[in-house]
């Protein structure tokens, strides 16, 4: 069983690696701030930039999310518990949010990390509030994709402490070696993208040196992350959490079908 999962995982990873190499974007300079941030994501899977946006801009963005939810012009999605309210196409309805959507520095970091031209498919505007049994943003521990690398940027628009549903990431779990080791040591399947709390604990116990980081941070902080690593938004217990998330895709992964799938949500 494990052997066939390992072979399956290996062949998918090889396939994606070849595809990425064929579409590789190169950069003239291997230095500078964007380069350093990209290298940090390569090492840890995560890079946190505090004070990236001012408190005033964040407050104005929160007001934009509230306005869009109230206006009902943009499509509003809500989870079953009523804890997670999402505007998948928020960048289309707000000039201010559009600024985050097109932020050149965040795009450059991502392009350097993935060594590929990127498309920002959309900017999710999201409001989280505590409700009984909420699983947090993203619905519990998961990898967004198992075989393809990913890049997202999350901007906190409100202060987020441990009780406000912070982003949580297993450092280093974006590394493809953890796909093989979790199949061998933890009985994961090749495609496994949803991971129970128990399985994350077992993963951490059997992977020495790996730990999960809770990204408690003040508003204006940007979290740059490879979401092919193991992550979740923690369940929210108190207050509210407003955030924006840019969904980037390498151009060669972003096909018409995917584009249409998202557009239905705007
Ligand atoms: O909003 C968060 O804290 C994480 C949600 C998530 O799983 C994601 O954006 O991939
Ligand atoms: Fe996710």
Describe the structure.
By secondary structure, the chain is α+β, with helices and mostly antiparallel strands. A hairpin with a 5-residue loop joins β2 and β3. The mean pLDDT is 96. The strands form two sheets. A seven-stranded antiparallel sheet has the order 1-8-5-10-4-3-2. The chain has a three-stranded antiparallel sheet with strand order 7-6-9, with no helix packed on it. The chain has eight helices and ten strands. The radius of gyration is 18 Å and the shape is globular. The longest helix has 21 residues. Bound molecules: 2-oxoglutaric acid and fe (ii) ion.
Which ligands appear in the coordinates? 2-oxoglutaric acid, fe (ii) ion
Question: Which fold does the CATH topology refer to?
Answer: Jelly Rolls
Low-confidence stretches: none
Q: Describe the largest sheet.
A: 7 strands, antiparallel
Helix/strand order: HHEHEEHHEEEHHEEEEH
How far apart the termini lie comes to 41 Å
Determine the fraction of residues in helical runs and give it as a percent range. 25-40%
Computed over alpha carbons, the radius of gyration is 18 Å
What order do the strands of the largest sheet run in, or round the barrel if closed?
A: 1-8-5-10-4-3-2
Mean pLDDT: 96
| Number of E-type strands | 10
Shape-level CATH architecture: Sandwich
Tally of contiguous helical segments: 8
């Amino acid at each position: 069983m494990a052997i066939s999962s390992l072979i399956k995982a290996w062949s998918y990873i090889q396939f994606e690696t070849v595809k990425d190499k064929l579409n590789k974007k190169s950069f003239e300079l291997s230095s500078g701030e964007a380069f350093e941030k990209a290298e940090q994501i390569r090492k840890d899977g995560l890079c946190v930039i505090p004070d990236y946006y001012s408190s005033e801009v964040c407050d104005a963005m929160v007001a934009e999310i509230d306005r869009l939810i109230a206006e009902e012009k943009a499509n509003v999605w809500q989870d079953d518990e009523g804890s997670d309210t999402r505007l998948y196409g928020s960048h289309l309805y707000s000039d201010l949010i559009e600024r985050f959507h097109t932020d050149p520095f965040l795009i450059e970091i991502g392009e350097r990390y993935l060594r590929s031209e990127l498309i920002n498919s959309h900017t999710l505007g999201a409001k989280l509030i505590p409700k009984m049994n909420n699983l947090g943003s993203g619905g519990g521990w998961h990898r967004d994709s198992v075989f393809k690398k990913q890049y997202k940027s999350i901007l906190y628009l409100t202060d987020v402490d441990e009780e406000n549903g912070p982003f949580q990431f297993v450092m280093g779990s974006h590394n493809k070696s953890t796909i093989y080791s979790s199949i061998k040591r933890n009985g994961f399947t090749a495609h496994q993208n949803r991971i129970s709390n128990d399985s994350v604990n077992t993963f951490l116990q059997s992977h020495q040196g790996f730990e999960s980081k809770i990204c408690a941070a003040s508003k204006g902080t940007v979290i740059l992350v490879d979401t092919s690593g193991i992550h979740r938004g923690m369940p929210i217990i108190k207050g509210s959490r407003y955030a924006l998330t840019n969904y980037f895709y390498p151009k060669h992964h972003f096909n018409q079908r995917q584009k249409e799938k998202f557009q239905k949500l705007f």
